[in-house]
Design a protein that fits this description.
By secondary structure, this protein is α/β, with parallel strands linked by helices. It has helices at residues 12-23, 37-47, 63-73, 88-96, 109-120, 132-143, 148-158, 163-170, 174-188, 193-202, and strands at residues 3-8, 28-34, 51-55, 78-83, 101-104. Helix 2 (37-47) packs parallel to helix 3 (63-73) and helix 7 (148-158) crosses helix 8.
Length: 212
């Protein structure tokens, strides 16, 4: 049985390029292409693909919103996000939406084919194009019940920022930061900033620059 793939990409050149490459592989069948999120959902309902290559930024309905609808209407379809960016906030939203992978658009096309096959068969993927470190962090923090904002706070705390600097970085008040820290400590099962930083390291998080 071939892997039935739907391509959702608003840039025509990329859409055609992905299709031409996938059509060359006898194990993959491209069942349709969509130029926006709404069309992707409609075509997925019609063709019932095994996997959807979903652009993150599309008109009418973005990739995250379209993924949510797909899970409701075509629960058997896996979603592989295609994006130019790999910020923790974006990946966190994608993971929360239930995507099966997050691929950067500068992926080698042969590598993309390998990723599609591996994800379809439920294999663990290790690829320089999948932003593995961030995906690992997001999954670990998700298991700890942490939100994207709490992840940002923890990253800044691990970097050594005080409450005032965290508030400035995230464009919120210091009172908001204090509330975030209370909830963060509770979820991590710690009592102070030092213990929180240590727990962050245990979860695989790095105290790097974050995007608000």
């Amino acid at each position: 049985m071939s892997i039935r793939v739907l391509i959702a990409e608003d840039q025509r050149l990329l859409r055609q390029c992905f299709q031409e490459v996938l059509d060359l592989d006898p194990e993959i069948e491209v069942v349709g292409t969509a130029a926006d999120g709404q069309e992707a959902v409609l075509l997925a309902e019609k063709h019932q693909p095994d996997m959807v290559l979903m652009d993150l930024a599309m008109p009418h309905l973005d990739g995250i919103s379209a993924t949510g609808l797909l899970h409701q209407r075509v629960p058997g379809a896996k979603v592989l996000i295609l994006s130019l960016h790999d910020t923790p906030a974006q990946i966190g939203k994608a993971m929360a939406a239930g995507v099966s992978g997050y691929v950067l658009k500068d992926v080698d096309l042969d590598e993309l084919v390998r990723i599609i096959k591996a994800v379809h068969h439920g294999e663990t993927i290790h690829s320089p194009f999948l932003a593995d470190q961030i995906l690992t962090e997001i999954r670990a923090l998700s298991r700890a019940g942490m939100s994207v904002r709490e992840t940002q706070v923890l990253r800044l705390l691990m970097r050594g920022d005080n409450n005032a600097r965290i508030a400035e970085s995230l464009c919120v008040s210091e009172q908001t930061v204090k509330k975030e820290l209370v909830g963060l400590f509770e979820k991590l099962g710690v009592k102070n900033r030092t213990q929180a930083a240590v727990r962050g390291v245990e979860l695989g998080l790095s105290g790097q620059e974050v995007s608000s």
